[in-house]
Amino acid sequence: MATQAGGERRIFIFDTTLRDGEQSAGVSLSHSEKLELAAQLARLGVDIIEAGFPISSPGDFAAVHAIAGASCGWADNPVICGLSRAISADIDAAWRAVQPARRPRIHTFISTSPVQMQYQLRKGPAEVLEQAVAAVRRAKSYCEDVEFSAMDASRSDTAFLKEVFAAAVEAGATTINIPDTVGYALPDEFGQLVSDIIAALPAAAVPVVVSVHTHDDLGLATANALAAVQAGATQIECTINGIGERAGNTSLEECVMALYTRRALLRTFTGVRSVEIYRTSRLVSALTGFVVPPNKAVVGANAFAHESGIHQDGVLKAPQTFEIMDPTTIGRPDRQLVLGKLSGSHAFRNRLEQLGIRLPEEQVQAAFRQFKELADRKSEITDEDLEAIAGGALVPVQETFTLDYFQISTGNRSVPTATVRLRMADGREAEEAATGDGPVHAMYHAVDRVTGVPVALRDYSLNAATSGKDALGEVSVKVEYKGHVYSGRGVSTDVLEASLRAYIHALNKIMVNGGRAVSGGEQRPAAAAAAGGGAAASTPISGKGNVSDGHAG
Ligand code: MN
């Protein structure tokens, strides 16, 4: 087996995403998709690509054959492997399919567990042993590189397994594979099985590679593979994102990163270019349509996301406080701090900086307060949300009126009625109710009653500032007061609240001028509007009807 200075062992990574992974219920890759994925697996640096099961269908045969041919043109030179039952026709088809590869491998298997021998093969152990040997010999007649698997090894009789593997090695198998086909094994037990089998292998001219193939039915696939490595196994069969039959196979990214992260303890290494892991995971997810769960180890959306304020603060001070891996090692774009209700101002400022948003200190404070309010209602604050919030904070204004409370009653057969309570700068509160043509009109009418400031709504627009069900609505208004136009902006997950905040924002700007148009508003209104004085302006909202009619006029 390959070793490095310091006695570290090389662990071969056998990727079966295209065979066991493609066997997942609901996965069916096209010919070109298989080729694309195989090329990416080569860039990832896997040692062996199990490209398919050639006898199983003409399509599978064609894909394995094409991948074998294409592999000769790759800078990296992985072994291209084809699966076959321990049947002559299977082995012949596997050979024809992998033959074009520079480094072809035939992988043949037979069941060795009592239950599968009895019910599936309807054969006794002696017959199975004989068939295994014949299969390995036939494969060896074509190809130097032969792998033999004892299917359901973890539920097989250990003495019989030792006998079968010894015979397979004597017949020429260069790799023997110990599968936990049904995901039944426990780590200690599986490690013991692997070391028992290794101890019983006959001496061979070239050391035999001992492989494991573990399934995740009990969520132990990676734990079992690692236990096997510690017991002396030198090849791990795995898939990207852990896809595969039933609950899936052990996942490549978990095994590779566990070996990498705990190298000092395990004293092993692989040839995988970890920086390609994330890209490969995304590709497999896109091609198969299998969404990677957010909490999936290594490649899930949240795998490097820190939500708790304490964790975020720690990671910002020193990533290793709460991260055992550097996300850039697997090629993730960058660390993502998910801002949520537990995020502190440090994380908030940091994200603004990363987004290139620079605000004066008092505006950061205002934006942070708004962020906290928003976080109470929205589980995740996105970058777009932050930009919307920061955009609002760019025009700070002294708050003469602040929104305390509002309630709307509306419906297609009732008159929209709004109750709004505002807090004044001196702490006083005032509440008014009003009706209107629509809910926004009713709210604005109620605000007018509270403030007594005679304004006319000149423009109203509503946009979704962000995407998704809990998107932020962003409302911009322009109101006219004594011949001058003031703009206001409001952001909220509730479009009615955003509407109200925008209106109050504009009123506060008016009040900054002492409620008098001393030095003019922000901009001159259009001549016609100015000439009209307080004339009613009709403003469409969301392209539907007229909600506002210049009610303040
Ligand atoms: Mn399998």
The CATH architecture of the largest domain would be Alpha-Beta Barrel
Ions and ligands: manganese (II) ion
- State the helix count: 19
Looking at the structure, what is the overall shape?
elongated
What is the total domain count? Answer: 3
Q: How many runs of DSSP E, i.e. beta strands?
A: 19
How are strands sequenced across the largest beta sheet? 3-4-5-6-7-8-9-10
- Average pLDDT across residues? 86
Gyration radius, rounded? 34 Å
Sheet having the most strands:
8 strands, parallel, barrel
CATH class of the largest domain: Alpha Beta
- What is the CATH third-level topology name of the largest domain? TIM Barrel
Low-confidence regions: 516-553
What share of residues is helical?
25-40%
SS content category: alpha/beta
How would you concisely characterize the structure shown here?
By secondary structure, the protein is of the alpha/beta class.
Q: How would you sum up this structure, described in words?
A:
With 553 residues, the chain is of the alpha/beta class. The protein folds into three domains: 10-288, TIM Barrel (Alpha-Beta Barrel), CATH 3.20.20; 305-382, no CATH class; 401-551, 2-Layer Sandwich (Double Stranded RNA Binding Domain). Helices cover 39% and strands 20% of the residues. It has an eight-stranded parallel β-barrel with strand order 3-4-5-6-7-8-9-10, surrounded by nine helices. A three-stranded mixed beta sheet has the order 1-2-11. Helix 3 (58-71) packs parallel to helix 4 (88-98) and helix 6 packs parallel to helix 7 (158-170). The radius of gyration is 34 Å and the shape is elongated. The protein binds manganese (II) ion. Residues 20, 181, 213, 215, 244-245, 249 line the site of manganese (II) ion (MN).
